[in-house]
Write a structure and sequence with these properties.
The protein is of the alpha/beta class and 466 residues long. 31% of the residues lie in helices and 23% in strands. The two termini are 40 Å apart. It binds N-(aminocarbonyl)-beta-alanine and zinc ion (ZN) (3 copies). Belongs to the metallo-dependent hydrolases superfamily. Hydantoinase/dihydropyrimidinase family.
Length: 466
């Protein structure tokens, strides 16, 4: 039996903070005991990790990534190998990526394709959601089978007409199906039909710079779509999870629905908490680095997102990691912002940025772990295997130095992308050591993992319903 003991750290979970020693046996948490007590003295192991002065955290769960996503004539630049390695560097030990159904193809074909991309390549464990781009009777039947197989959540798009877009009827049908089979609909809530009109009009006026991407994708059109998605879900009797919420007005729609007692949930991402429309307006096409959808908003929106995280009107922070290099990929939209591939890198930065939010007083430590580990695990049926440190859980553990200072930079990051959205940002706190099922993936700031250690992790249905 392989055993590890982590001694002397402050164990932080969504519910508790405790100076405790952690015993790991065969890849799982075997026991926790208050440090220095006789119970902790009984923990013996071949490997001891001294965590004195450090935090001992459950590995991060990033429930929204897009490795190798085909978008706008190119592919997101992180593969499952490079992206999951970067995840580990940033203290994330589980990713849930989006498999894509192509229009005219089955869900199964899309899922098989994503399995082939990931299998044998991942440094940490992974699961899949399914992007449903073509709702038809066959697709609806397939959804039932996918839920049984552990793909229990489905993303639909109210944006991107002609690509991933679903109309209200298709959305309602998928929601009705998920009300029956236990699936969770994840919604990209922006009125894409209206946005496309505004895009066309902006381009006709010669407004081609990246900042117009933010101006045409209006907060009101996010709020309108959020409202519509909520009411469609209510009609269907289905729960709803709204992805990448960025606008104050959209948070208000979620808050209202939750006050009504609906099972409606919201996710935001570090880019909406730490970046703004000012970045999109950076000169010399630099703004292209910040083009994603929903777009970065004027700074004033950040307060509503922080408040939503505190009031639990927003429950999860995921990255929507979808990197495109500035040179050669973001470039495709020089002279036409609508051709800039949408997406930002961030899988490596999420845990640190949210720790900075703890330092800045936006979040408590336990809330940090709740929104980054425990709730995403519950929301997507991975708890308590993932998302907490408790006997029986996978030994996905992060030893975190809360006092280390670092400067985020593309020079030092491990994501396969030629810029950082947070270049030059100073943060307090740093991942030191990461275990995935007990195996050291990062050991005192050295990569000691391997492609293929990470395994596919089927999920149960949502464990967060009220
Ligand atoms: O701009 C983004 N968010 N790109 C990834 C695809 C999506 O809509 O999540
Ligand atoms: Zn302490
Ligand atoms: Zn989206
Ligand atoms: Zn996304």
């Amino acid at each position: 039996m392989s055993r590890t003991v982590i001694r002397g750290g402050l164990v932080v979970t969504a519910s508790d903070e405790l100076h405790a020693d952690v015993l790991i046996e065969d890849g799982r948490i075997a026991a926790l005991a208050a440090s220095g007590t006789p119970a902790a003295e009984t923990f013996t192991a071949g490997r001891t990790i001294d965590a004195t002065g450090k935090y001992v955290l459950p590995g991060g769960v990033d429930a929204h990534t897009h490795m190798e996503l085909p978008f706008g004539g190119t592919f997101a630049s992180d593969t499952f190998e490079t992206g999951t390695r970067a995840a580990a560097w940033g203290g994330t030990t589980t990713v849930v990526d989006f498999a894509v159904q192509s229009v005219g193809r089955s869900l199964r074909e899309g899922l098989d394709t994503w399995h082939a991309k990931a299998e044998g390549n991942c440094a940490v464990d992974y699961g899949f959601h399914m992007i449903v781009s073509d709702v038809n009777p066959g697709t609806l039947k397939e959804m039932d089978r996918l839920v049984e197989e552990g793909v229990t959540s489905f993303k639909q798009f109210m944006a991107y007409p002609g690509v991933f877009y679903s109309d209200d009827g298709q959305i309602l049908r998928a929601m009705q199906r998920s009300a029956e089979n236990g699936g969770l609909i994840m919604m990209h809530a922006e009125n894409g039909i209206a946005i496309d009109v505004l895009v066309e009009q902006a381009l006709a006026r010669g407004e081609t710079d990246p900042r117009y991407h933010g101006e045409v994708r209006k907060a009101l059109l996010e709020a309108e779509a959020t409202h519509r998605a909520i009411r469609l879900a209510q009609v269907a009797g289905a729960p709803l999870y709204v992805v990448h919420v960025s606008a104050t007005e959209a948070v208000a729609e979620l808050a209202r629905a939750r006050d009504e007692g609906l099972n409606v949930f919201g996710e935001t991402c570090p880019q909406y908490l730490f970046l703004s429309a000012d970045n999109l307006a950076e000169p010399n096409f630099e703004g292209a680095k910040y083009v994603c959808s929903t777009p970065l908003r004027p700074k004033e929106h950040q307060a509503a997102l922080w408040r939503g995280l505190r009031t639990n009107d927003l429950q999860v922070v995921s990255t929507d990691h979808c990197p495109f290099c500035f040179t050669g990929q973001k470039d495709l939209g020089r002279g036409d912002f609508s051709k800039i591939p949408n997406g930002l890198p961030g899988i490596e930065n999420r845990m640190d940025l949210l720790h900075q939010a703890v330092v800045d007083g936006h979040l408590t430590r336990r809330r940090w772990i709740e929104i980054a580990c425990a709730t995403p695990a519950r929301m997507f049926g991975l708890y308590p295997k993932k998302g907490t440190l408790a006997p029986g859980a996978d030994a996905d553990v992060v030893i975190y130095d809360p006092h280390a200072e670092q400067v985020i930079s593309a020079e030092t990051h491990h994501m396969n992308v030629d810029y950082s959205a947070y270049e030059g940002k100073r943060v307090t706190g740093r991942v030191e050591t990461v275990l995935s099922r007990g195996e050291p993936v990062i050991t005192e700031r050295e990569y000691t993992g391997r492609a293929g250690h990470g395994v596919y992790t089927p999920r149960s249905t949502c464990q967060y319903l009220t």
